[in-house]
Structures are given as C-alpha cells and as structure tokens.
Specification:
alpha/beta; Cobalt-precorrin-4 Transmethylase, domain 1; Methyltransferase, Cobalt-precorrin-4 Transmethylase, Domain 2; 2 domains; 5-stranded mixed beta sheet; elongated
C-alpha cells in the first residue's frame, strides 16, 4: 500500500461585488468541482446555492472587524493548507476581485511554502461594479485622466504631502473600506482646497437589490452626511466623473435598509471546529 501523499489544489477566485451574475464562468466551474470552499462574508448566498455541490464543505471565514467578528488570517492559511494537503480541491472565494485589497499575498505565501499548486482567477472588483451600476464612468474623457484605488482607515497611512496631491489631481479617487473614516477623508481634501467641481459619491451595497447612491459636494458633506453611517460594504468615488451619475444612472436607489450580506454570527477558530461550523448546501 502506497504512503504517497496526494496534494490537492487551491483556486483563489472571486465572487464579484454582490450581484451573483457577475461571477466569472471559470470561477463558477471551479465551485461546481470543489470539495471545500472557504468563503468571505461579502459573497452572495445565491452563488453558493447555485454553483456548489451538495457534498462540498462550505466554511465561512469572513472578516468583520468593526463588529469584532473575524476569522484570523492565520486560521484561513491553516485551513487552505490542511485541506489541500488532504488531497482536496479548495476554492478560496473572495468578494470583488482577488487582487484588489485582499489578503492574497499572505495566502500565496502559505501555499508556496507548502508546495501547494494553485490558480488565481480574476473577477469584477467592487469599484468597477459600483461605478457601472451608478452610471459613473471612472475614466470618462475630459473628466479624469486616470483612476486610483485607495483605502484609508488610520491617519498614519497617508502623508500630508499625499493628501495635497490627491486634492490637486484630476484622477478619479476610489476609496475601499473607508466609509467609517469618510469625515476625515473629506476634511483632508477640503483642507487642501479640492476643486468644488469634484463631487463625492457613496455607494452602499453596490450591484445588489439594496444599492443606494448618495452624491454631494465635498464642502457640503458635513451638513448632509457627517452623522450618517453607511451600510457595509460602501464604496466611495471622488472626482469630476461623479457629476455624470445624475445623467447616466440607470439603477434606482433601493428604499430598503436591509443588509444584502448578513453580519457574521460566529468565528471559525480552528480546523477541528470546522466540522461543527460548516454547512452543506442543499
């Protein structure tokens, strides 16, 4: 009897920004073949119901730091390695695109260190989905020269010199995971005299049935929105292109305040506990 270890494979794939139809055909194909799926919180339940086989193990490993409920990156890495070394086909399913503001580097390091084969499948990132569904072309001619993907959650990650550059550039600015820090973002940009023709759009739960788009002059933000909290996920677009929303918006704002992505109820702690926490899709 052979004692040779059969190594499986890990697929680093994307579910898109919310709308379940925005998943790629390749990612959907691998989900149908997978033995184990490690899924983020920002993945539509409909994707898991439609594309995952009944025998597959689904493990929820989302992060939700604002609510104190998150799966550690170390645990996620351990799960990937554990199941792949057990000979399983594992899909690591992330919201948006796998390479934009995700922890793909940590996961790649774990896979390479353990000689585990893998594939990376690109997808629709949140900024592209949100912009499309809000009717905001991010690099519209005569409105923007480029687009920058940014995040801001603490003061020491952006220098004062860079705030000045961001205020002066004609690039469209897209902030991920920054709605909680939005008052500070606006404060920094207005303090550096950002052009009044550059507007701010906050897009809640983009591409879903509960999408809402809020547009304002940055200098009016404090009066209109400073005390308002926005439903996660929310994406922020700043620039002259935001003015195009009024003309080209094609998806009506939802009247609902429901969460499309349900808040996490529990945390995956260890590999052993996944047998208790996982569910089978029926």
């Amino acid at each position: 009897m052979s004692n040779e270890t059969v190594t499986g494979k890990v697929i680093l794939a994307c579910a898109g920004p919310g709308d379940p139809e925005l998943i790629t055909m390749k990612a959907a194909r691998y989900l149908r073949q997978a033995d184990v799926i490690l899924t983020d919180r920002l993945v539509s339940d409909e994707i898991l119901i439609s594309h995952v086989q009944p025998y597959a193990k689904i493990i929820h490993v989302g992060k939700q730091c604002g609510r104190g409920t998150s799966t550690s990156q170390e645990t996620i890495n351990d799960l990937l390695v554990h199941y792949a070394l057990s000979g399983k086909l594992v899909v690591r399913l992330k919201g948006g695109d796998v390479s934009i503001f995700s922890n793909i580097l940590d996961e790649l390091e774990a896979l390479v260190s353990n000689h585990i084969p893998y594939e990376i499948i690109p997808g629709v990132t949140a900024s592209l989905g949100a912009a499309a569904c809000a009717g905001i072309p991010l690099t519209a001619r005569n409105h923007a020269t480029a687009v920058r993907f940014l995040t801001y959650y603490k003061s020491d990650i952006v220098s004062e010199e860079y705030w000045k550059e961001l205020a002066e550039t004609n690039d469209t600015l897209v902030f991920y995971m920054s709605s909680g820090a939005l008052p500070k973002v606006v404060e920094k940009l207005t303090a550096n005299n950002i052009d009044k023709n550059k507007l701010l759009a906050i897009i809640e739960q983009a591409t879903t049935l509960f999408q809402k788009v809020h547009v304002t002059d940055l200098y009016e933000f404090e009066n209109k929105f400073k005390q308002q909290s926005f439903i996660s996920p929310s994406l922020i677009i700043i620039g002259k292109v935001v003015a195009l929303h009024e003309r080209f918006a094609w998806l009506m704002n939802s009247s609902s305040n429901e969460y499309y992505f349900k808040p996490m109820a529990s945390q995956v702690i260890s590999i052993r506990e996944t047998d208790k926490l996982h569910k089978h899709v029926s």
